[in-house]
Specification:
This protein has about 400 residues and is of the alpha+beta class. The chain contains 13 helices and 18 strands. The longest helix has 20 residues.
Length: about 400
């Protein structure tokens, strides 16, 4: 069964998550090893039926890799649909092994909560957790909770049908996963040596906004777990470059919030952050002056309208406001403001509006400062809390409170 979603008036094909791939391969391996009907033994392609966490059912093609008396392994060729996923077409393996009686469970193995003696771990190409704040413990394989539940559940059912009493270890691996992981956020999240096994519904939606927000939440959660109270945010690479080069702040622990400024503020508050410094290009952050907290152009643009309004409110003429409206981008607007002698006045109006909206979004538990810059003109303006907050972000951009 193929699933589709419509985004930006385009019909896009969904894919399957790495968690679904591992589950399908593990199910096929368990069936083969314990001679439960549903698999062919000639190694030909076949499919297993899975019920996904979201409630839908899906057939997933599987391929046999290896079989011995006490081990069976299948793999799935990852289909990411129309999503630009680094794991698309990767072979994702899951094996099932009967453990000898003398084998002691390793500390980094996951243990099934519903069946004693059923274990799971990651091997080649699966990342290992090195920092607190992730769902897995330090040293464990980066296999997220929902995929773990899916994998354990699929194999557990086979063991029940086959009346198996032996202890069983499930292994997952992704050859080439360490190289693929270099194109992900894993290293920044504290996951080294490979990829993560991910998924919440089992379905991979193209251009998933939720995946981006989930990554932002993970980074904030890690900082909170480490006792951090100060959060440095940049929407994109322009902001990161400016912060590093001109403000000379350490970028190692900054969080890239992309277009999801409002949601990032909400997450920061929910995880107990007390101070937020947001630094970004005026082309994106000017939208905050109209209360637009998702700055993606498909959600709202309004840059010309916002700049024209505050130009007029700062004393600019209608003619100047009309010129602002005819500009392609904010970089074109600044020379017009300078020529009219209104750059500082307009920037002052902008920062006042931005300050009002971000304070309203953050509430009383967090102090938020915003700095705007231009790619060509450098620093433009900052909200009134910036001078107070900057000392908390110097040296290390996020320091633990000493209290």
């Amino acid at each position: 069964m193929e699933l589709y979603v419509t985004k930006n008036q385009k019909k896009l094909r969904c894919g399957i998550t790495t968690g679904t791939c591992c589950t399908a391969a593990a199910l096929a391996s368990a069936r083969l090893l314990f001679c439960v009907c549903g698999n062919k033994e000639n190694g030909q392609e076949e499919a297993v039926n899975l019920r996904l966490p979201g409630g839908s059912q899906m057939q997933v093609p599987v391929f046999m890799s290896e079989r011995t008396d006490n081990f069976a392994e299948y793999y799935v060729v990852k289909d990411s649909g129309d999503d630009p996923d680094v794991t698309n077409h990767a072979k994702i393996y899951a094996g099932v092994r009967i453990l000898p009686d003398e084998t002691e469970p390793q500390k980094d193995w996951f243990c099934d909560e519903e069946r004693k003696g059923l274990y799971l771990t990651g091997e080649e190409g699966i990342g290992r957790v090195t920092r607190e704040g992730l769902p897995e413990k330090t040293g464990q394989a980066a296999i997220n909770p929902v995929p773990r539940k899916m994998i354990f559940g699929a194999v557990r059912e086979v063991l029940k049908l086959a009346d198996v009493s032996e202890r069983v270890l499930i292994t997952v691996r992704i050859p080439g996963g360490e190289e693929l992981a270099e194109r992900t956020f894993n290293r920044k999240l504290g996951i080294v040596g490979g990829l993560s096994v991910l998924g919440t519904t089992g379905i991979l939606e193209p251009m998933s906004e939720k995946a981006i927000v989930d990554t932002i939440e993970t980074e904030i959660r890690q900082r909170a777990a480490a006792g951090e109270k100060n959060l440095l945010l940049t929407p994109g690479n322009y902001g990161r470059g400016y912060v590093s080069e001109y403000l000379q702040l350490d970028m190692d622990s900054s969080v890239k919030c992309s277009n999801y400024i409002g949601e990032t503020i909400d997450l920061a508050v929910s995880y107990g952050m007390e101070r937020i410094l947001l630094v970004g290009n005026i082309g994106k952050l000017v939208k905050l002056a109209a209360g637009i907290m998702n700055t993606h152009s498909k959600v709202a643009d309004g840059r010309r309208e916002i700049m024209a309004l505050y130009t007029f409110l700062a004393g600019g003429s209608r003619e100047l406001a009309e010129k602002i409206m005819s500009c392609i981008n904010t970089e074109e607007m600044i020379p017009l403001l300078e020529k009219a002698g209104l750059r500082e006045a307009v920037m002052e109006k902008l920062q006042e509006a931005i300050d009002s909206y971000v304070r309203h979004r953050g509430g009383s538990k967090v102090t938020i400062a915003v700095m705007l810059f231009s790619e060509h003109f450098g620093f433009l303006t900052q909200t009134k809390e910036t001078a107070e907050l900057l000392p908390y972000f110097t040296g290390r951009n996020e320091r633990k409170d000493e209290t």
